[in-house]
Design a protein that fits this description.
159 residues; mainly alpha; 65% helix; 0% strand; elongated
Length: 159
């Protein structure tokens, strides 16, 4: 491949229909409706083909918002807080109801997740105010709420 040539936008295998491309994508991982539509745009000249296909897949149970939420939560909950996970779910185009349900589920284990992430990154408690602020910023960047962060850092002072 010539490095000076722009990459081609069509990645489909010859002879595969848009439906087959969608099934191939869904066989690898769960997609939200918005994500799948965006991915399928590269395989078709007519964007009007995509919404009926997505509707059919949803009716057949091949495309599920609930499974997308479960997959994201399963892969992210041990490393990130509920705020970051909720943001990722919004980016995927999921409904606010699904995101609210995920946040409620995440709140149950968020404190323990934050402690685990904090312990892996910082083996010793903060020695001074600047170190404490650095550790708090790290946890905020991971999407944990300020309330949870304060509990984690305060627990470190107790040890």
């Amino acid at each position: 491949m010539d490095p000076n040539q722009p990459p081609t936008t069509k990645k489909s295998k010859p002879g595969l229909s848009l439906r087959a491309q969608a099934l191939s994508l869904l066989a690898r991982r769960e997609y939200s409706k918005q994500e799948l539509a965006r991915r399928l745009l590269q395989y078709t000249e007519d964007a009007d083909e995509i919404p009926p296909l997505i509707e059919e897949f949803e009716q057949r149970g091949w495309l599920s918002e609930k499974r997308v939420v479960e997959q994201v939560m399963a892969t992210r909950r041990r490393r990130f807080g509920s705020q970051k996970i909720a943001h990722e779910l919004r980016q995927k185009g999921l409904s606010e109801e699904a995101i609210a349900g995920a946040r409620e589920s995440l709140k149950v284990s968020e404190l323990e997740s934050a402690r685990e992430v904090w312990r892996r990154k910082f083996p010793v408690p903060p020695a001074n105010a600047s170190e404490k602020a650095r550790q708090m910023r790290f946890l905020q960047g991971r999407g944990f709420s300020l309330d949870i962060i304060r509990k984690v850092i305060a627990g470190a002072d107790d040890e």
